[in-house]
Structures are given as C-alpha cells and as structure tokens.
Amino acid sequence: MTETSSAPRSAADPATSPNAADPAASPNAAASPNAADPAAALLDGLRRTVRAGDAPGPAARRALLELADPSAARTAGRVLARMDAPDAGLRDVRVTIHATCTIGPLEQLLRTQLVGAGFRPDIVKGEYGSFEITLATGATGATGATGATGAAGGPADPDLLVLLVDAGFLLPRDWSPAEPLALEEHVEHRLRELRGLVEGVADRTAATLVLHTVPLPAEVRDTFVSLDGRARFAALWHRVNAELLKLAADRPQIAALDLAGALADSPFAARDARLHRYGDLPYTDGALLVLANEIRRVAQARAGLSRKVLALDLDNTLWGGVLGEVGAGGVQLGGLYPGNAYLDLQRTARRLRDQGVVLVLASKNDAGPVDEALAGHPEMALRADAFSVRAVNWGAKSENLVRAAESLGLAVGSFVFMDDSDFERAQVADALPDVAVVSAAGDPAGLPGALLRHGWFDVPALTDTDRKRPELYRKRAERQDFSSGFRTSEEFLHALAVRVDVAPATEFTVGRIAQLAARTNQFNLTGERFDEAATARMAASGGHVVASIAVADRFGDEGVVGAFWVERGPETWRVLNLVMSCRVLGRGVEQAALGWLADRAREAGAARIEGRYVRSDRNAVSADLWTRAGFVPAPGADAEAGPFVLDLAAAPDLTPAWISTRSTREGSAA
C-alpha cells in the first residue's frame, strides 16, 4: 500500500525519472560530485568500476538501460569498451556490423545497451564502403577482441550480424519526380538486390541476421509537389519496408526491426542533414540509440534472457488510489482519466499473460478487500484467476517474491517487478538485484509504455507451451497444496500419476526445443545452446537423436518441458546436452527420459551412453544427474565433469516406478 496522491505528477517531478525513482540505479551516487545528475553520477561510477577491473553490477546495468540521452549513452559505451572483467557473470556475445553508410556511434550505443542487458559484447565493424562486396562474398565473420575463430581456422560467425541500411542504398544518385516509373523500378531493383544479399548470407552463416526498416527522408517525400505523386511514392516505400519485415517471417534466422515505426514514437529525428552531407551519417545519434535498443532486445530474446514472470503491485499501479482508504468501490479504474490509464495497464498485463507471461500479485494489503475488489469491480480486467501466485500481505515484497519464485519453481532472475513506491522498488532492487524493476510512479498514462519499452518478455517466436505457461504454473501451485496430504514423497508421486512422452523432434517441436536450449539455465547439463537451425539439422541427421520431453499428470498437461541432443555412434551414444524446465524437477522426469534414450540405444545396437556435466554459476541442480541415473565416471575422467558412462548391457530400467512413459514413435505405453 502507498500513501501517494492519485493526481498525475508533472514532467518536471524528479520522481518520474527512472534513475531518481530507484536509488540503486545510480551506483556510488552519494560519493560522486555529480550526484545531482544521475547520468553524470552513473558515468563516474562506470569509470571507477572499469579502472578497478570490474564490471557494472545489476543496479548500474539497469541504469544503463534507462539512459535516454544519446550523448551520455555514447560516452558510457566508450568507457565500457575498456572493461576487462572476465569473471563478472556476463554472457559473451559477438556482434559484427556492416553498413551501407558511416556507422557513427552505433558501436558505442549498442555496447551500452548490451552491457545493460547482462552481456559482455565483442563488437566488430565492417569496412566503410564494403557492404555489398562483403555480403556477396560471404566474408561476414570478423575476429574481434576475443579472437574467436571458426572450425576452419578463419573468423568465427558472430552471434549477431547487424546490417545498417540507409535510404541512399535504395535510391538512385540522381532522380526526377517527373519520371516516377523509372524511380520506382530502381528502388524495387535495389530491394531485390538487398534481399538476395541477405538471403545469400543467411545460407552461409549461423549468425542471427538483424536488419531494419528504412525511414523515408522528408526531402525525398517533399520533392514531390503533387499530392498524388507523393502518396504514390510513400506507398512504394511502405511496400519496401513491408518486404524487409517479411524476410523475418520467411526465415527465422533473420530478425527484422521496425526502425521507422519505433522512431515515430521517439523524441528523436531520424536524420541530420549536416551530418549526412559532412560524414555520410544518415542517422542521428538519437535514432541510432533507438536502433541499439531494438538490437539489444533481439540479443536478449535470442540468448534466452527473456523474463517469464511479471509481479505487480495494486495501489496506484493496477488501480488508482489506496484500497484500504477508499474501499473496493472507490479505486480509480476505467472510465475517464486517470482510471482509464490503470485499466490500460491491466489490459496490457492480460495481453502479456495471453502470450505466456506468468502474473504474480505482490501487494501490501489485507487479503479480504483485495479479493472483493478483484471479484466485484465491474471494470477489473485482471480477476483473481489471472494470477498464478498472489502474495497479498504486509511482509517485505522481496521476501514475497522469493516465496513466489519457490512456488513457481523459477529463479527470481526471471521476474519483472512493477510498483509505484520508490521505497518498495529500492528494497526489492537491493535485496534481489537480479529482478528487473519497473517504475509505476508518475503520470499513469505512461504505465503501459514503462512496462513494455525494455522488451523484458521478448522471445524469438511464441510456442503453444508459451501460451499455456500461466495456467501451467497455476497448476504447479495447486500441486504443492495437494502434496501436503501424503506421508512420503513417493506416495505423493504415485498419486500424481505422472506421464512422460518422449518423441523425436518434428517441424512442430523444433522451435520449442531450441527455445528450451536458449532459456534453460538451471537444469542445463553442458550449457551448449543449439539454435533452431542447428537443432533442425541435427534432427534430420542420421548421426544424431534430438527429442522433446513432455509431461502430464492428474492436474493437466505441462507440454514440452525438456529436450536432449545426442550424437549417435555405432558403439557409443554421447549426450551433447539435456535441458529441463525447473517446474517439473523432483518428479523423476529426467531419469525417465534417460530410460527412453537407453532403450533406443539398445535397439540400435549401441553398448553405452556417455554424458558430461559442465558447471556454470546456475546449473548446480543438475550436477548429480549422471550418478543418480547409474552412470559411472569413465577411467581417468574428472570426478565432476566426467565423462560418465552407462553400460547398457548391465543397466536396469532407469524409469522411476511412479512414471509411465510413452514414445510417440511407438505409440504405446511402456
């Protein structure tokens, strides 16, 4: 509960600043001579951190994402280029940028965004003027600071290959609005050439290709003095951008960003005529910051750093006013401003839930009035059943989020927390630095935008399991309640009636399997993350086995919750990786999956299965899988990492007694 007024704050109110609203977002601010300026304090803190050989902590990284001043973001990128902290818990990402123009400060702006999202970026720029020849010859890899090389000894494919395109690439050097057909033919020809270059690169690299729509320069548009000619050319340009966006629909390896659309909602102009003429810089720093933010969202989604849970406050967040003071009928929700703004936030949260985001209620209130408001208010878009967990009490919100995470079987690092109270946000940020904190303070009209602008929930593609996730986690909480009535865990598991369905990967499950590889960090045995293209190739290969693992029980169908990738040899099958959603751990599902794999290996005439464990800072929960399943270290093997071997001739059935398994290929229960 908060004591703030429901009246909107002015734009000049310091509490509307994301950095001011979250004291933790300005590290070392108290010791900085620039403490009154959050951006300057942040930059001072970054310089001290880098000089000390460290990397920015979670609070500073959150502040980097809030930098709205392109100059400050560019400076931060230059400072971070000197960062040398190999053990900082950041995820490596290699980025190569090729451009049809001068790249300008995109490298620095993108570094700021990527570090803010938890990456350690290695960014390489292509040579000026080499865009077409580089893409045409396939020389898209580039060795950066890490010196990464490919299997053939040349530069390794980057994780992201960013293609920066300006309007000059599509337009002729000289043209006449009096000859519109010639102009249109030239633009369409250049679009076909660009599409061919992009598709050719996609055939030759494993990198994710990132390109964007191109804003139409005002001087081009306004050169047409006839209204119909201007409209006709604008329609052509919209078709060009639509074709660029369609590339992503045709090829999952390509991520197409709507830069033109994003700039329409930003305070920045797309172009600066002087910079363009002076240095072939067609985009302003502000436009490049918008693009860097969009590229960061792609990297975040592709690396599996998407958040799964949205924890929401109630008072002055999901509705206006303080429930304990005005009662269920007195809160502001729906109707005119500001009630319509709070309703819009609820609808936004509901739309996120429809796409798989798990909602948690985190409110300091008495439970009875909250239940009354959720059930009885006629404008309520989020009823009680929309929330997988409800933490409505007077305890510390950080403790409630920890308990909610335990109930859902997820790490707190998968949470986004939104609250209007400066105190509550600061308390959660301090106690749980891995939680993404979003301010609901200030004008409620900006609430949906504040929640969405960082793309915390972005994923490469939605699967059926994503859409079912909120209900799956609500059922998980019900299972926990159900388990309290049994004397032993095994008795509970037998009553749960667990069914495991293991099936070779198909065109319908490859996307979900690749998503699990990207997003699963805890039960992830080796950390090898096979993307959708690699997973599809392995699934079609006779030398590999790729399978999905689905689970159901008396409470419902969990969907595909795990997968494994296996290299299949004549004598030995080697498990390259096995991943499993943490929400099904403790039921023996992973052992049942290995039981299925052992049966398939025996049928194929193999003598053994071999597996490894590669420790990370988050996968300790999977460390003992091989020994629990009866595998033994190979002679001379490392005691922790293995390899571990299962002798198929002597191995018993690995499937626990309380689990029934089914192979879709066989279509029969085991």
UniProtKB/TrEMBL annotation:
Signal peptide: none annotated. Residues 1-36 are annotated as: Disordered. Gene3D superfamilies: 3.40.630.30, HAD superfamily/HAD-like, SGNH hydrolase. The lineage of its organism: Bacteria, Bacillati, Actinomycetota, Actinomycetes, Streptosporangiales. InterPro entries: Acyl_CoA_acyltransferase, FkbH_domain, HAD-like_sf, HAD_sf, HAD_SF_ppase_IIIC, SGNH_hydro_sf. This is HAD-IIIC family phosphatase. Residues 11-36 have a biased composition (Low complexity). NCBIfam families: FkbH (TIGR01686), HAD-SF-IIIC (TIGR01681).
